[in-house]
């Protein structure tokens, strides 16, 4: 067994009646890593997470958390992690501080340690000024920050986050990102499910792309982007009537297809890269085709996501 891998998922499957929800998914997560499960709605991300967190039994395969088998040693496996979802399991009639104190004691902290840990988390999540108000006064963003704070009270070795920033405003989302990164800096390991490509790109050390219950790709964000292709050429033609002519010129030079969206043309460049770009620019200029925008950029995770999931349905 590789002791660096704190989470090991080996060839797991899950069926609901005749429907195969998850098929042949395997990955390992190293200690101190942020690992992203990325995929469209209904791809199987939450089903995978439920199996890892012992809420569902897998029909085949093996899952180890810190060396403990989730089926054969479920009680010990459950002691290795904390999980937070999209809704908080907190008491509405109590304050944020009281909720954190209760969860601290449930996690085996003594009164003084629980009190200090509550203050530390309230500070981290910008909730100290509201610490003694009942939760009825809390906004959605404050509730979500408290939910994450509750899940961190026992400093879990492994933290599972199921779409933790869904529906949050940008400021609160950034606070959540900072909190997750601080936790990892203190030695925790995080598995994050998300639909937000920006979030996966920003946070995750590695990403597994899930679609229709299968793993399509796994790697660092930059490795996944390289799988799509090298650089991407994007230009906007000034005159709509000249789009077809511009498309033909680019296709002839690249010997590759060009995506057209109204006046915007997009194409992937091969290894010859910038030398063909100047050739395209010269030919467009010779043909008298004016452009509003012209850019060469690396593909985004959006490009990865679209290429690997669209058209496979």
Please provide a written account of the structure.
There is one protein chain. The protein is of the alpha/beta class and 313 residues long. It has 3 domains: 1-80 and 156-221, Rossmann fold; 87-154, no CATH class; 231-297, Alpha-Beta Plaits. 37% of the residues lie in helices and 27% in strands. It has a 6-stranded mixed sheet, with helices on both faces. The chain has a 4-stranded antiparallel sheet with strand order 2-1-4-5.
> Structural class, from helix and strand content?
alpha/beta
Instruction: Provide a count of the helices.
Output: 11
Strand content: 25-35%
Strand order of the largest sheet: 6-7-8-3-9-10
Radius of gyration: 24 Å
Number of strands: 14
The level 1 CATH classification of the largest domain is: Alpha Beta
Question: What is the topology?
Answer:
Elements (H helix, E strand, L loop, with lengths): L4 E12 L2 E12 L3 E5 L6 H8 L7 E6 L2 E2 L4 H5 L2 E4 L11 H11 L4 H14 L15 H13 L5 E5 L7 H16 L3 E6 L2 H7 L2 E6 L2 E6 L1 H8 L3 E6 L5 H12 L4 E3 L2 E5 L5 H13 L4 E7 L3 H9 L4
Parallel strand pairs: 3-8, 3-9, 6-7, 7-8
Antiparallel strand pairs: 1-2, 1-4, 4-5, 9-10, 11-13, 11-14, 12-13
Helix pairs in contact: 3-4, 3-5, 5-6, 8-11, 9-10
């Amino acid at each position: 067994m590789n002791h660096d891998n704190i989470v090991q998922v080996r060839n797991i499957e899950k069926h609901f009646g005749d429907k195969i929800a998850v098929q042949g998914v395997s990955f390992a997560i190293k200690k101190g890593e942020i690992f992203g499960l990325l995929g469209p709605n209904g791809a199987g991300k939450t089903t995978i997470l439920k199996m890892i967190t012992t809420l569902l039994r897998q029909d085949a395969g093996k899952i180890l958390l810190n060396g403990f088998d989730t089926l054969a040693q479920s009680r010990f496996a459950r002691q290795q992690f904390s999980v937070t979802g999209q809704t908080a399991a907190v008491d509405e009639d109590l304050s944020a501080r009281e909720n954190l104190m209760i969860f601290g004691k449930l996690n085996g902290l003594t009164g003084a340690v629980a009190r200090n840990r509550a203050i530390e988390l309230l500070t981290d999540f910008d909730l100290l000024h509201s610490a003694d108000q009942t939760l009825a006064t809390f906004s959605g963003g404050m509730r979500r920050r408290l939910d994450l704070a509750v899940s961190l009270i026992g400093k879990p070795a492994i933290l599972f986050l199921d779409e933790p920033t869904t529906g949050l405003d940008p400021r609160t989302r950034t606070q959540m990102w900072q909190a997750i990164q601080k936790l990892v800096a203190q030695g925790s390991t995080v598995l994050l499910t998300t639909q937000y490509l920006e979030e996966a790109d920003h946070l995750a050390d590695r990403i597994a792309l899930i679609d229709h219950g299968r793993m399509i790709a796994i790697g660092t964000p930059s490795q996944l982007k390289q799988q799509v292709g090298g650089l991407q050429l994007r230009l906007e033609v000034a005159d709509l009537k000249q789009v077809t002519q511009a498309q033909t010129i680019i296709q002839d030079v690249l010997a590759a297809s060009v995506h057209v969206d109204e006046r915007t043309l997009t194409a992937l460049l091969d290894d010859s890269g910038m030398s063909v770009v100047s050739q395209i620019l010269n030919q467009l200029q010779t043909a008298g085709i004016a452009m509003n925008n012209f850019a060469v950029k690396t593909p985004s995770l959006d490009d990865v996501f679209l290429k690997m999931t669209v058209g496979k349905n």
